Amino acid sequence: SDPDPLQDFCVADLNATISGNGFPCKPRSQITSADFFYDGFTKEGNTSNIFGASVNPANVLAFPALNTLGISMNRVDFAPGGMNPPHSHPRASESGVVIQGKLLVGFVTTDSVYYSKVLTAGQMFVIPRGLVHFQRNVGEGKALAYTAFNSQLPGAVILSTTAFASSPPIPNEVLTQAFQIEDEVVNSIRSKFGA
Ligand code: GLV
Ligand code: MN
Which residues make up the binding site for Mn(2+) (predicted)? Predict the structure, then answer.
């Protein structure tokens, strides 16, 4: 869903001092083969965190050759029981394929209908743009998936950290009212995210 490019490529100059919708192009004279290949997916991600999962984004910031091309990918690793928590991508639809393990993949529509399925190696899923979704490892061992986006920088709004770990924080009275919970519940959730 990004705008169409007006040239073959425009490898991002991430250090440019001007900002805009995307990045300016690195001078053509400085472009080599190395710009168009990316090694960041070769290693397993570190899943030692509260969610037991690791999302490694190959977006324009990591792989500048994606600039203006409207695509990007993630490598997502899951420890047993690990989860990529409920989140949405404001600028992209997502498709994904399970490479290893057994993943429960679910999303919720804007009218609160939940769709889900348990997928194993080779099976694919799609998450329509902007909808809240998650993946959870429901197998015995590790799991691995690759996801793909129709944006060079899809963005991710993670529900739990957006609500409870913003900086500065959303006032407690907003969260107690929104989620119909007590003040101490808000504080307890905040503390789990180190907020
Ligand atoms: C999975 O949902 C991802 O955003 O990579
Ligand atoms: Mn996603």
Answer: 87, 89, 94, 133
